[in-house]
Design goal:
Blueprint: E1 2-8, E2 20-27, H1 30-39, E3 47-50, E4 56-57, E5 62-69, E6 74-79, E7 82-88, H2 93-102, H3 118-124, E8 127-128, E9 131-132, E10 137-144, E11 150-154, E12 175-185, H4 197-203, H5 211-225, E13 233-237, E14 243-245, H6 246-255, E15 262-265, E16 268-270, H7 273-279, E17 286-287, E18 290-292, E19 299-302, H8 308-326, E20 335-336
Parallel strand pairs: 2-5, 3-5, 4-20
Antiparallel strand pairs: 1-2, 6-7, 7-12, 8-9, 10-11, 10-12, 13-19, 14-16, 15-16, 17-18, 18-19
Length: about 325
């Protein structure tokens, strides 16, 4: 177990923001996690639980204790028609996707190349290309911070919705996730209708892709439009795509007939926030040391030496312009501290 005082978090956030914390604890086993919460004192508060830092924006030093899981391991249980894959929270998410696809366990491939660690998937309900991780989460194991007791939650108990879960709301900072179990299929059913998937496959002359070919296509799409955080700090998609009523959608569609959109249900449509930001003229533009990526307007970047507040300032300007033009308030997906 690692336990440091006055610790730098620069290497623990993909924006590359220079900030620190009063105390940093990293545990490698469930037993160490239980020992950690048992020994926490009031002077260690507040707590910040992080994964890979790919959904985190630090605006200042954190005056409290940062907890990070380095628990590793993957195990499987075969069931009728599929497999339960139990993954430790400290495993890298995309390594897990690769491992499952290579072994013929399907359901994760559309979520390829999303940065971060496994524990965060159960908190954030990550999603991409028409798939959300809630579609495959079977069970979440955790430690209750107040008592140090092990517990688990079913998919239904986590109350997943678009980029939301109870871990982000009433369970925030109450549990340390130690393992996530995913229910996958041994039969591959491709989902190709979202984004540029078919276009990318057509380039390769692939009509009926294997799971690995689909994964590779999605990796190629993401690499083409998303910046490498090692070169240009970022947290991937900064904003959530807004879900609007059919009344609001029809009003906008009449004015912008070329507007992309995706059906949520019979009463709601999802409109890409990146498209609206682009329409406001922000793609490729900067505000000081913070900027909007030139290939994907949904991504805010650290142009070099930006502070967290520089990114927040840019975020606020973009939100105002989108609100003024479309009458929609877009919300950050990133956890701003």
């Amino acid at each position: 177990m690692k336990d440091f005082r006055n610790y730098s978090l620069t290497q623990h956030n993909t924006f590359g923001i220079s900030a620190g914390c009063s105390r940093f604890i990293e545990f490698s086993t469930v037993a160490e996690a239980k020992e950690t919460v048992k020994n926490l004192k009031q002077t260690d508060m507040p707590l910040l639980i992080i994964g890979g830092g790919s959904n985190l924006l630090l605006t200042k030093d954190f005056q409290g204790t940062v907890l990070h899981s380095a628990i590793k391991g993957i195990s499987t249980t075969f069931i009728d028609g599929g497999v339960l894959v139990r993954v430790a929270s400290g495993e890298v998410w995309d390594d897990t996707v690769a491992y499952c696809v290579q072994n013929g366990w399907y359901g994760m491939e559309n979520l390829s190349h999303i940065p971060g660690e496994v524990g965060a998937t159960a908190v954030q309900n990550i999603g991409a290309y028409g798939t959300e991780v809630k579609d495959i989460i079977y069970k979440v194991e955790a430690i209750e911070i107040a008592t140090g007791k092990s517990c688990f939650f079913t998919n239904e108990e986590c109350e997943y919705s678009y980029r939301q879960s109870r871990f982000k709301k009433d369970w925030k900072d109450k549990y340390i996730i130690t393992h996530v179990t995913y229910r996958l299929s041994t039969i591959f059913n491709s989902h190709l209708e979202y984004g540029n998937i078919r276009k990318e496959l057509d380039k390769e002359g692939i009509e009926h892709p294997t799971a690995m070919q689909l994964r590779n296509a999605i990796i190629k799409i993401r690499e083409d439009k998303l910046p490498d955080p090692k070169i240009e700090g970022n947290a991937g998609s900064f904003f959530m795509n807004p879900v609007v009523s059919m009344e609001k959608f029809n009003e906008l569609l009449a004015e912008y007939p070329e507007m992309p959109h995706y059906e949520v249900d019979e009463d709601h449509e999802k409109i890409p926030a990146g498209w609206m930001i682009d329409q406001c003229g922000w793609k490729g533009k900067s505000l000081g040391r913070a900027g909007v990526h030139s290939k994907q307007a949904l991504v805010l970047v650290n142009k070099g030496g930006a502070t967290g507040n520089d990114i927040v300032c840019l975020c606020d300007h973009i939100r105002k312009d989108v609100q003024d033009k479309f009458g929609i308030d877009i919300h950050p997906e990133v956890n701003i501290i």
